[in-house]
UniProtKB/TrEMBL annotation:
Residues making up the signal peptide according to the UniProt record: none
UniProt keyword terms in alphabetical order: DNA-binding, Phosphoprotein, Transcription, Transcription regulation
Keyword DNA-binding in annotation: yes
Lineage of the species this protein comes from: Bacteria, Bacillati, Actinomycetota, Actinomycetes, Streptosporangiales
SUPFAM superfamilies named among the record's database cross-references: C-terminal effector domain of the bipartite response regulators (SSF46894), CheY-like (SSF52172)
InterPro entries noted in UniProt: CheY-like_superfamily, NreC/VraR/RcsB-like_REC, Sig_transdc_resp-reg_C-effctor, Sig_transdc_resp-reg_receiver, Tscrpt_reg_LuxR_C, WalR-like
Domain Response regulatory, chain residue ranges per copy: 5-124
Name of this chain's protein: Transcriptional regulatory protein LiaR
One GO biological process term: phosphorelay signal transduction system
MF terms in GO: DNA binding
Residues bearing the modification 4-aspartylphosphate: 56
SMART domains named among the record's database cross-references: HTH_LUXR, REC
Domain HTH luxR-type: 154-219
Length: 226
């Protein structure tokens, strides 16, 4: 059994202690360090090489979004750490910026312990723990408040997709599962999975959640669109 190395990042010591007690009770999870701000989190990620960084968003100094951006940019080439965002609100506009910065998902701070443990294992395995439909709901609510999403020039790469891959991306952006996309396009789920993999590879995206954000950035999907 491989051990998942976790770095706890939160400006509240009591919360970090609570998270540590929960996680260290699991035989396959080890807490390798703690940080009370984003700058320290970046430094400890570099030195401790955690598999998962459990990251608070709102912290003094360097916040969780900027820390996530630095961690993904600086460490991806070495050991590819995953960032799991902690948020107080289920509709927090900062979450979208965190996902765009490279986070693999988010979790509410008041989630049950078993959900926290499961989320860490999922993220450590390379998957995202936020359903695309949830990301879509967040974008629909906050897209008009995010100039970076609304005004940014379309990222390069969309032209490299085939017509079918663009079609699959548009379905992913609507929060549809592989089974639902397969039914809509009258193809097999295996074919859809292949197309999704090609889309992520061509666009340099880590998971389906980032694909939803990308679709907004390119104008392929818009708030309220069905």
């Amino acid at each position: 059994m491989s051990t998942v190395r976790v770095l706890l990042v939160d400006d509240q010591p009591l919360l970090r202690t609570g998270f540590r007690l929960i996680l260290e009770a699991e035989p396959d999870i080890a807490v390798v360090g703690e940080a009370g701000d984003g700058a320290t989190a970046v430094e400890l990620t570099r030195s401790l090489l955690p598999d998962v960084v459990l990251m608070d968003i709102r912290m003094p100094g360097v916040d969780g979004i900027e820390a996530t951006r630095r961690i993904i940019r600086e460490e991806a080439a070495s050991h590819d750490p995953r960032v799991l965002i902690l948020t107080t609100f289920d509709l927090d506009e900062y979450v979208i910026e965190a996902v765009r910065a490279g986070a693999s998902g988010f979790l509410l701070k008041d989630s049950p312990p078993e959900e926290l443990i499961t989320a860490i294992r999922i993220v450590a395995a390379g998957d995202a723990i936020v359903a695309p439909s949830v990301t879509r709901r967040l974008l629909d609510k906050f897209a008009t408040r995010l100039p970076a999403v609304r005004d940014a020039a379309p990222p390069p790469g969309l032209a490299t997709l085939t017509d079918r891959e663009r079609e699959v991306l548009s379905h992913v952006a609507r929060g549809r599962s592989n089974a639902e996309i397969a039914a809509a396009l009258v193809v097999s789920e295996t074919t859809v999975k292949t197309h999704v993999g090609n889309v992520l590879a061509k666009l340099g995206l880590r998971d389906r959640v980032q694909a939803v954000v990308y679709a907004y950035e390119t104008g392929l999907s818009r708030p309220g669109q069905t």
